[in-house]
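Summary of Year 1 activities. Much of the first year was spent building the evaluation harness for sequence design. The harness presents a backbone, in tokenized form, and records the residue chosen at every position. We chose the following record to illustrate the format because it has been used consistently in internal testing since the harness was completed.
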């Protein structure tokens, strides 16, 4: 991961580290997508909750994430959800203590 000091480039991937946007180097076509700690924790909690619905089978994290992404992407308000999240992150970056967003994906 390299610190990005130039203007943001469309199509590039950035994460928030210590209150600053950092450029993430891509490997191929995004085999790994960095997410915030809060998103990771929510994903793992949902994975545990799904165990009962799947008859005791604990689903792979990729299955849970794929299901959520495909469903959310199909929602009519998907663009609004992403825009609102982006605005929340950018607003937090303007705050002096943006530590709650460390590792948040933009």
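For this record, the design step produced the sequence shown next.
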């Amino acid at each position: 991961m390299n610190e990005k000091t130039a203007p943001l480039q469309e199509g590039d991937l950035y994460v928030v580290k210590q209150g600053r946007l950092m450029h993430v180097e891509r490997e191929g076509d995004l085999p790994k997508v960095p997410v915030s700690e809060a998103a990771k924790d929510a994903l793992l909690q949902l994975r545990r909750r799904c165990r009962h619905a799947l008859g005791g089978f604990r689903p792979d994290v990729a299955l849970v994430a794929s299901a959520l992404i495909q469903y959310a992407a199909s929602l009519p308000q998907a663009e609004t959800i992403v825009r609102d999240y982006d605005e929340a992150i950018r607003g937090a970056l303007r705050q002096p203590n943006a530590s709650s967003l460390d590792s948040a994906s933009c």
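The first strand starts at residue 2 and ends at 3. Quantitative recovery figures across the full test set are reported in Table 2.
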